[in-house]
Amino acid sequence: MSDAPDFDDPGGEVPSSLPSGFRAAVTHALAALGYTPTAWEPDGVNVRAPGRTDDQYVGLANLYRRAKAADRAEWPAVIRAFLENVTGALSGPKIPDDLSAVTAQLRPRLGKPFGRHGRAYPWGVPLRGTGLEINLVVDYPNTMAYVTDEMLRKTGRAGEDLLDVALANLRAGTPADFFEPVSGELDIHVGHTGDGYDAARALLVEDLLPPSPAGFWVAVPSREELAAWPVSFAALSKVHVLKLFARDNYREHAYPVTDDVLWVRDGTWHPFDIRVDDTDVTVAPPDGFLAALEELGLGRNDPREESG
Questions:
Q1: Are the beta carbons of 41 and 117 closer than 8 angstroms?
Q2: What total of structural domains would you count in the chain?
């Protein structure tokens, strides 16, 4: 296989950010499993399962991340194990052309945006203010399958309508004790079920936690991690702790989402810029944040009482 380190054009519709040596190893593993690559995309490949006429998108960014950290001699085993899991889902029960038959299995997935160049890319809408995207998936016991634009076309339903269904399903499947406090000193709450949808539960933070008039800071460093912190004046001086949590776990864990800290209030999302170096912490709140605190008077006594 080629050892070329550069990212190149595999001859498809768009250049791939996956090097040719890695693509060759994936192609070999897919062929051994009976699958045919039909079109490469920046971070993945469209494949056709044996006996099928439709394509399914397989994201490879996380697999490539693992492969880079392994010796080349380990690549065949690492790639095959990954693809066996993925293709097991693709060759399992066929997703009905009409998604109405599997509405109870719909879930939202929160992550980085997919490319929009291939023929089988997942449907998605941006989570405005975050740089992230909300996708729809069909949940199975051991895996999931992304809902594509083509599936929605055959179903005759808008993705936004089915997203409402998926969010309701996720809410119903979230334990009442999903969020646990980190400590008695910091009001940070962390949620973890390991079902693959913990990051997506960021979309439900304002429903899952007691009301916080000024909103919540939220961190989703990886697919399996969610941290939320009710906004207050007292917490503002320590909010860099959440940034460190996001930064460290984003670097270390599989399926990274973002190392940003986000602020959500009344369903509206904003980036909350926090920069931490060896000597300084710099916080640059988004427009409206400090006004929200002042308006609500969180964490401060009424100055009229102090002067009286």
A1: yes
A2: 3
- Residue where a domain terminates, one of 70, 90, 110: 90
The position carrying tokens 């004790």 is 177
Q: Which of 108, 100, 83 is nearest to 29 (CA)?
A: 83
Identify the pLDDT of residue 40: 84
Q: Which two tokens stand for residue 153?
A: 């076309």
Spacing of C-alpha 178 from chain mean position? 18
**Domain co-membership, 187 together with 292:** yes
In the block, residue with structure tokens 């079109």:
39
For residue 244, give the nearest of 280, 283, 275 by alpha carbon: 275
- Reduce the secondary structure of 156-194 to three states and give it as a string: CCCHHHHHHHHHHHHHHCCCCCCEEECCCCCCCEEECCC
Q: Is residue 37 part of a domain?
A: yes
Tokens 């994936």, residue? Answer: 26
Does the global pTM surpass 0.85?
A: no
Domain contains 10: no
In a domain, 214, yes or no: yes
Which band of pLDDT confidence, cut at 50, 70 and 90, is reported for residue 117? low
Question: Does residue 65 sit in the same domain as residue 50?
Answer: yes
Q: Select the more confidently predicted residue: 95 or 252.
A: 252
Rounded CA-CA distance 16/300 in Å is 53
Does residue 293 share a domain with residue 194? yes
Choose the final residue of a domain: 90, 108, 142.
Answer: 90
Domain with 155, as residue range(s), is 99-172
- Evaluate whether 176 touches 182 at the Cβ level (below 8 Å): no
Q: Which residues pair with 272 in a beta bridge?
A: 261
- Angle, helix 75-90 to helix 20-32, in steps of 10 degrees: 50
User: What count of Cα atoms within 13 Å lies in the side-chain half-sphere of residue 305?
Assistant: 3
pLDDT tens-digit profile of 214-247?
999 999 999 999 999 999 988 998 999 999 999 9
151 shares a domain with 198: no
201 and 267 housed in the same domain: yes
